# Entry
Amino acid sequence: MRATVAARPLVLGPSLGRGTLVIGVGALLLATIAVAAVAVGTTEVGPADAVAIVAHRVLGIGSVTWPTSAETIVWELRLPRVVAGIIVGAGLACAGAVFQAVLRNPMADPYVIGTAAGASLGAVTALILPGLLPIAIGGAWLGIGLVQLLAFAGGLGAVVVVYSIARGHGGTPVVTLLLAGYAISSLLAAGVALLMFVSGDRLAAVVSWLLGSLAGASWPRIAVAGPLIVVSFGLILVRWRTLNALLLGESQAAHLGVDVEHEKRVLTALAALATSAGVAISGTIGFVGLVVPHLLRLAFGPDHRLLLPASMVYGSALLVAADAAARLAGGIPVGVVTALIGAPFFLWLLRRSVATHG
Amino acid sequence: MGERSSSPLAALRGVVAGYRGGRVLDGLDFELAAGEMVALIGANGSGKTTLLRVLAGTLQPESGSVELFGRPIGVWSRRQIARHVAVLPQVTELPAGMSVAEVVALGRIPHAHSLFGAHPADREAVAAALRDVDADGLADRLVTRLSGGERQRALLALALSQEPELLLLDEPTLHLDLAHQLALVALLGQLRVRRRLTVVAVLHDLNLATSFADRAVLVRDGRLETAGTRDAPMTAAAAARAFGVPIEEATTVAGRRVLVPVLEPPRAVEPSGASGPIH
# Structure
């Protein structure tokens, strides 16, 4: 019965060529945007100089042909923002892809089960507490302040609480997880609102953090958050088959050999880790984690072998571009820009897919 | 999982299983021989799906023993079971944006050889599965663009690409019209021979169940009763007991025995046992 061979090669998923093309184009786009983002600003640094400065600092090659001020601007100010944009954008988009698959909900984003609210409460507490209590909180350690630490801990802590509430005898039902996430988020948001009410002159700092910004990016912060995000990526990426199996629903995934409850827990933890690490350095930037994986799924299909790496690359590109635009527009919060660019594009694609499939 | 021609493929003894709401299986015994084709019948909520879940290893019994391929089911990992037992689910929402071949290839997940690549054996298994359900032509079609019958064949191909020895089907004829129901049952009969499959299927149509299976097993009150075999076909009395409705036995003009649920009030019907040709 196996004697005959299919006349035409079977296409079992995105072919290597197509996958390489999607990722390659994305990487090229990201590289272009990154160079442009380093070059543009109130002090113009030519793209060639920008690349040369980075090459000089990283690889120690080339001779100095630029003013010291240009090097300071590129190396100390703009590049950290770009690199932070890359890791945060990749982290949010990848976590979004994971939550959408695990929760089987296209509206899920990295913040849906409490990360954003938890991180916000942590950050806002850190921003306001020193003003309210006459205590001196130990200074920044390696540039990682109390804000980043509490934001990270708050984000992860909220997910742990939500997950333990939703966990029952027979497993963790997705609907319960979403509802518990909603309830805990509301509770924590009330805490944030209360703190804002008593924040006095710290209100501006609080609002700015809540809207999300990469202005606070620095090498030490990247050095701490970066590895966390990269390790989460790696561990999420090797689970692409699990995420694909979950496309058929939890019971069928189990029939395909997936230990569903265990994998759900691991994937949720990894995605929450990447999200919390990102949010700690950037604040809660919206839309990237919802829209990027969604768009890519509409464009290239739901196979996670392609969807996960593509989400990372295009998430990075979107956030770096949005941050550069925000910077050029006089420092408006980047979250505003991601929504301004993302929402109309998203709506257009949604309309198009309704027109084709509906 | 080795050659064991004599020992049963699956053996359940005194199985008690259920959900938080309560017990569904209550001291159930069941033996399944390799190569057998068994139809599970019974009223809604009688425990047919629960029995399939216990056989597939996705539901742990509260007590009793379950042996699969001659060893306690607990020694097999989820993945090992999935390489030998496939389940055609009752309902599955198929992922939008995937082709039939891509969905069928999901059946290769338990056999994954490398971290990211596909193995030549995967391609072969998917091609064979599509061919066996006569769906070669559907390979590139989006799963969201399938008719009910095509969808069911695609799902069957997904189960076959797991290259199982035991195939479990939960109401495979649901939502299919008469022609597709008969075609599916005929296909299962062929596959069983060609792939040396052992098949357990939940079926609601009594006549389909009798013509399909070597053995029809009735799930009632959390236990099993043999309702009929090829040599001793299911009686109207057994079927009536199973579903709690009056059922008559009749012989068609062509000489086939059929079971017919009685639609009119019972008193308006001829005395039972009066079996004769249907005119």
